[in-house]
Amino acid sequence: MAYCRIVIIFVTYNTLFPMKIFCIGRNYAEHARELGNELPTEPLVFMKPTTALLQSPCDFYIPDFSDNVQHEVELVLRISKNGKHIAEKFAHKYYDHIGIGIDFTARDLQNRLKAKGSPWEIAKAFDGSAPIGEFIPIAKLPDPKNIDFALTRNGTTVQSGHTSQLIFSFDVLVSYISRFFTLQQGDLIYTGTPEGVGKVAIGDDLRGSINGREMLVCKVR
Ligand code: MN
Question: Which of 9, 108, 171, 175 is at 20 to 30 A from 91, Cα to Cα?
Fold first, then answer.
C-alpha cells in the first residue's frame, strides 16, 4: 500500500511539474533588433528553475532589485516523452502540448550583466519570472505550423507574433537542446518573444492568447 502511494506521487509529480525550464533568446528577428542584438546563428539557450513558475491566473510582484522589469510573451512547448540526441525529423514526436507564458526580464540588471559578459540568471530566472498559462494539445490546433499569439497590457495589444517568424523552428529547438540536455516528460521550452517587449508597472493587467483564445492572465503587483 505504501509502495503504491509512493509510485502514484512520483507519477503525478513527473507529469504535472516540469523538471527543467528552457528558454530561447533572440528567436524573432524584430525583437533581436529592438534590443540591438545581432541575429543568432544557432539557438541561444538559457534556463530557469521551477521556482520561477507562476500558474495563471497569477499575481506577479515586481522585485525590489529592478526598476525595469519587462514582459516577453512566448509560446511554450511541453515535452511529452524523454529523449536525447533527437533528430530534427523526429522532434515533433517529443512535444504534444503548447501554451503561452511570460519570460519576465529585469532588463536593467540584464544589461549590466551583458556588458560584463556575465551569466543572466539573476535577471531572468528569479522567483516568479515565468508565468505560465493553460496548455492545449497541439493536435487540436487547426494548423500547428501557423500559430498566432499575442499579449495585451491593460486591454491594448503590445506584442503579437506568429510561428512563421521564428528564426529556429520548434523542431530545431527540441533537437538542438537535446544534444546538451536529456529532455524529460514535463520539461518546458519558452520559445522566444516577438518585438514589443516593454516595462511593466504595478496595476498592469497582462493577458496572453493563442489564436485569439485567452490562456494566461497575470496581474502586476
Ligand atoms: Mn525571452
Answer: 9
* Grid cell locating 157: 495589444
Residue 28 alpha carbon to ligand 1 centre in Å? 10
- Find out whether 153 and 198 touch, Cβ atoms under 8 Å: yes
Ligand 1 center to 5 CA (angstroms): 38
The predicted structure's pLDDT at residue 185:
95
d(CA 148, CA 30): 16
What pTM, to 2 d.p., does this model score?
0.92
Q: What is the grid cell recorded at 25?
A: 533568446
d(CA 194, CA 178): 24
User: Ligand 1 centroid vs 16 CA: distance in angstroms?
Assistant: 23
> What's the CA gap between 14 and 167, in Å, rounded?
31
Architecture of domain 19-220: Alpha-Beta Complex (3.90)
- Cα(201)–Cα(71) distance, rounded to whole angstroms? 10
Half-sphere exposure of 96 (CA within 13 A, CB side): 9
Dihedral pair phi/psi, residue 47, rounded to 5°: -130, 160
From the CA of 48, how far away is ligand 1's center (Å)?
11
User: What distance in angstroms lies between residue 197's CA and the mean position of ligand 1's atoms?
Assistant: 9
What's the chain's average pLDDT?
A: 93
**How far, in Å, from the CA of 10 to the mean position of ligand 1?**
30
Torsions phi, psi for 44 (to 5 deg): -100, 110
